[in-house]
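Field log, afternoon session.

UNIT: design team B
ACTIVITY: writing a sequence onto a fixed backbone
BACKBONE:
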């Protein structure tokens, strides 16, 4: 039997500084996430300069806490895995510089992680024995893409969004409604007491066979609903909590029902009855409910990443790091970052 592998994962691509130690790609020994939401909320979105400064302050204590909570020493680690792309360049550089310093100082292999592939790995983690291929949806603030996944390291893009990502549409929709950033959880909270059929938004399905997404029209439809028939409304917040929760429930329904139907289409077209869903929006309970509803009708086995590993975290980085290490996929110490 091969020796157990302990991987330290480091994530700093956007507005979370995270570190985690995972054993053999499955067993989470520690997971530390420092979220910057409070620092960005007043600006309505992530401000790259603020993100960079916060990562710089948090990266060392976050890594130290992850290692000590795991009950290990840096010398016990088998490798150090770090997100190098895609993301904010200044933010990525901080995680990658920390990872390189540790890899050099402790003479450990460095592993280059693609953030989206890590979101997919998070959805593979709950499955005890993998049965490839899968259809995979990654749905976050920056991405809404369908893939065919043939191994933890092999993903073929089937379709993506032509404009906004689903999380971006939720974030922008929430801003129009006067709800706090990040918009996805704000809309979900408000929607829980609303009627999803109150405002029947047309689903952007892009014809009967398309796997592509487009959420910008839905955002415009929300704006026109807010402006009212004369289109003169200047105050975007609707009077009365009832209307607001109905509007949130209807908008959330349109986004999540579209995602669920597209997943079913991809599974049917590719004749693959197994579906993985990861990324920040995969936390959403209406999305989980819509996917479960359609999946049971189509005999599709759907697995979501665990809620705590849907939004950015380092467990998924360490997990994918294990898959890459066992595949001999080691990066050199001149590893560079990339925005895309
Ligand atoms: O994966 P993630 O943390 O960062 C990116 O890689 O983009 O995803 C963040 C996105 C944001 O757009 C946020 O509004 C959305 O995920 N999100 C949610 C929920 N939690 C986070 N959307 C819907 N429902 C949620 N509960
Ligand atoms: Zn992410």
């Amino acid at each position: 039997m091969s020796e157990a592998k302990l991987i330290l994962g480091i994530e700093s691509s956007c507005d979370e500084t995270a570190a985690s130690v995972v054993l053999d790609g499955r067993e989470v020994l520690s997971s530390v996430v420092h979220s910057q939401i409070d620092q960005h909320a007043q600006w309505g979105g992530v401000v790259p300069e603020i993100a960079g400064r916060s990562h710089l302050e948090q990266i060392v204590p976050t890594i130290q806490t992850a290692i000590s909570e795991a009950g290990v020493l840096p010398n016990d680690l088998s490798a150090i895995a770090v997100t190098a792309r895609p993301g904010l360049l200044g933010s990525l550089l901080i995680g990658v510089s920390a990872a390189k310093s540790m890899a050099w100082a402790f003479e450990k292999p460095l592993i280059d992680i693609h953030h989206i592939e890590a979101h997919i790995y998070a959805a593979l983690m709950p499955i005890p024995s993998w049965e490839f291929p899968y259809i995979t949806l990654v749905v976050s603030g920056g991405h809404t893409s369908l893939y065919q996944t043939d191994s933890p390291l092999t993903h073929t893009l089937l379709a993506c969004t032509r404009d906004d990502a689903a999380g971006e549409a939720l974030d922008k929709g929430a801003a129009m409604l006067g709800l706090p950033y990040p918009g996805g959880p704000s809309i979900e909270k408000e929607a829980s007491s609303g009627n999803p059929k109150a405002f029947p938004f047309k689903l952007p399905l892009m014809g009967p066979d398309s796997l592509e997404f487009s959420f910008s029209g839905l955002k415009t439809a929300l704006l026109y609903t807010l402006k009212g028939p004369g289109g003169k409304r200047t105050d975007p917040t609707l009077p009365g909590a009832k209307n607001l929760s109905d509007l949130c429930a209807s908008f959330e329904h349109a986004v999540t029902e579209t995602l669920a139907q597209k997943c079913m289409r991809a599974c049917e077209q590719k004749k693959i009855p197994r579906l993985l869903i990861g990324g920040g929006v995969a936390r959403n309970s209406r999305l989980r409910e819509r996917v479960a509803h359609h999946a049971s009708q189509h005999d599709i086995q759907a697995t979501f990443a665990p809620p705590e590993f849907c939004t950015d975290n380092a467990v998924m980085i360490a997990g994918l790091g294990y898959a890459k290490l066992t595949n001999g996929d080691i990066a050199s110490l001149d590893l560079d970052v990339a925005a895309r």
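LOG NOTE: The two ends are 39 Å apart (CA to CA).
NEXT ACTIVITY: expression trials, pending approval
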